[in-house]
Every structure is written in structure tokens, then in C-alpha cells.
Design goal:
Blueprint lengths: L11 H45 L2 E2 L7 E2 L3 H8 L1 H32 L6 H13 L2 H11 L6 H8 L14 H25 L4 H9 L4 H12 L1 H16 L3 H6 L11 H10 L4 H37 L1
Antiparallel strand pairs: 1-2
Helix pairs in contact: 2-13, 3-7, 3-10, 4-7, 8-9, 10-13, 12-13
Length: 316
């Protein structure tokens, strides 16, 4: 008579592990069921178009007829295109004017609005309101105000005895006017960020500096500004990226004119892809801009990391 098989026994520890694994599988399935729509949206609207446009930059494509592979010809053509060079130059001038002015003016206004003055809440609101207005609305508004013939700006200048200005129709003024409009709308963000950062300046450092006889200027230079350095680096990065990608305001007001004086890189990309129907050429210009943004972001990130380490070492 053959012996009976030995029954397989499962210990309580193995049962608990199996139950945990099943519970984790159920939790993972539930989690993926919730995040899968977002993942599909990201893949469909971000990653796939990014890869497609990268491949498009190596092709001659007018978005209508079949494209053909041209390799690096689009990138090589950019180096010889005077219009692209002009767009790069206009973008750099715009960025060089807008970013420092927005940072300096934003910090100055934040220092003023951080004091206990009457109706300070109203003043803060007035500086923030332009920031929430869309660039399209800003462009439409200032197109009426700065109209050379019927605009309110020239009417005010005439009242002060100043000769009429051409504003958007003058190649020497158009880009400067765009910078001024951008400052009017972009200062609010810098003010809000700096106001929040000023609330976190350690009070014990300020009190210690005052006990040592430091005046207002020395407090600003040796206590406040070093504390605000990480915030300033962030704002420089943020404002630089926004300045390099300016498009809406240009499209609504000048459309790159007059005589290409306000043609910036993003408008050049749009013009090549959807006006001249050279999508591959526009995609190549877009990736030149993307590489520039990546280099700037990486450089400022390194600077921010070093500054954070320096501040942490100074407080130890």
C-alpha cells in the first residue's frame, strides 16, 4: 500500500505575504486606473509631439505633400539665414532689457509695499492685476492706446507739448514699446514673489544687525539681498524663459514689423511653419530655441545650487 502524500501546509507568514502582494496589486491597478487618463494626455499632447517635431526638423515638410529627409540641412540653413539672425538679435535685446528691469523694479516695489503704509493692500492689488490679464488683451488694449493717429498716448503727449510718436510703426521704437508693455504686465509676478520672500527673511538677523548699528542700506545689502538670492535666481530663470518665448504680444500688436524690428524667435518659428509652410525649417528653429533654454536653465540651476550651499555653510 503506497503511503499517502504529505499535505502541503502554508505558514501564517506566507499567507500574510501573499495577502500583501495581492493588496499591492489591487492598489497598483486602482492607481493606474486613476492616472492613466493623465498619462495618455501627457503622451498625446507633450511627448509624442516633441518626438514628432524633432524628427520633422530633419525633413523638408510643408504639411501638405509628402516630406523628404534632408538631415542637418535645416540647421545649416539657419546659420546663413539673415532673418533668423535678426530674430535672435531682437529676442536677445528684448530679454536683456526686460529681465533685469523686471527684477530690479519688482524688488524695489516689493520693498516699498512690504512696509506698513496706508492702503498697502490696494497698491499690491493694483500691481498684480496687469499680470493676470492675457497677452492678447494687453496687445489689443495698447494697440488702441498707442495708435499714432487716434491713440490716447499721443493726445496726452500733445497736451504736454511733446511731438507725436509713431510707437509700433517706428522700427526704432517698436521693440522698446513691447518691453515697456511687458514690464507693465510682468512686474506683478516679481512683486508677489519678492513680497512672499521678504516675509521669510529671518528677523533675528535683522535685529542683530540693528544692534550692531547697521542702517537701512546695510540691512538691505548684507542681510536682505543675500537671503533673497535663491528667489532672485528663480526669477531670473523664469523671466528669461518667458522673454525668450514671447509671442502673443508680438502677434497681436506688430506681427514682427515694422521691417522685422520686432520679429522674435517664436514668431519666426510660427511664420516659417504656418505662413511660409516650411514646417521642417520651423521645427529646426524651435529646437535651437529649446537647446538654448535648456542650457540657460541648467546654468542657473548650478548657480542656485552653489548659492544654496554657500548660504547653508554660512549659517552653520
Amino acid at each position: 500500500m503506497s503511503p499517502l502524500p504529505t499535505p502541503i501546509t502554508i505558514s501564517g507568514h506566507e499567507l500574510r505575504q501573499r495577502a500583501r502582494r495581492q493588496a499591492r496589486r489591487r492598489e497598483s491597478a486602482t492607481a493606474w486606473s486613476f492616472i492613466s487618463p493623465a498619462v495618455l494626455i501627457i503622451l498625446g499632447l507633450s511627448i509624442v509631439p516633441t518626438v514628432w517635431s524633432f524628427l520633422l526638423s530633419f525633413r523638408a515638410d510643408n504639411l501638405v505633400t509628402p516630406s523628404r529627409w534632408v538631415g542637418l540641412d535645416n540647421y545649416h540653413a539657419l546659420t546663413k539665414d539673415p532673418h533668423f539672425g535678426e530674430a535672435v538679435r531682437n529676442t536677445l535685446v528684448y530679454t536683456a532689457l526686460y529681465v533685469p528691469l523686471s527684477i530690479v523694479l519688482g524688488l524695489g516695489l516689493a520693498l516699498v509695499l512690504n512696509r506698513r503704509i496706508r492702503l498697502v493692500g490696494l497698491y499690491r492689488t493694483l500691481f498684480v492685476v496687469p499680470f493676470v490679464i492675457s497677452a492678447t488683451a494687453q496687445g489689443t488694449l495698447f494697440s488702441f492706446i498707442l495708435d499714432p493717429q487716434f491713440g490716447a498716448a499721443n493726445a496726452v503727449l500733445h497736451w504736454f507739448g511733446v511731438s507725436p510718436q509713431k510707437f509700433f510703426t517706428d522700427p526704432a521704437q517698436a521693440l522698446l514699446v513691447l518691453v515697456a508693455i511687458s514690464l507693465w504686465s510682468g512686474l506683478g509676478f516679481c512683486v508677489v514673489v519678492y513680497l512672499a520672500a521678504l516675509q521669510d527673511v529671518p528677523q533675528h538677523l535683522i535685529e542683530a544687525a540693528r544692534l550692531d548699528g547697521a542702517g537701512r542700506w546695510h540691512l538691505l545689502r548684507h542681510v536682505t539681498l543675500p537671503t533673497l538670492t535663491p528667489v532672485s535666481v528663480f526669477l531670473v530663470l523664469w523671466q528669461t524663459i518667458n522673454a525668450l518665448q514671447v509671442f502673443d504680444l508680438v502677434y497681436v500688436t506688430t506681427k514682427g514689423g515694422p521691417l522685422g524690428a520686432t520679429t522674435v524667435i517664436v514668431y519666426f518659428i510660427w511664420e516659417q511653419a504656418f505662413k511660409n509652410f516650411t514646417a521642417g525649417y520651423g521645427a529646426a528653429a524651435a529646437y535651437v530655441l529649446a537647446v538654448a533654454l535648456f542650457v540657460i536653465a541648467a546654468g542657473l540651476r548650478v548657480v542656485r545650487g552653489r548659492e544654496r550651499n554657500r548660504l547653508e555653510g554660512a549659517t552653520r
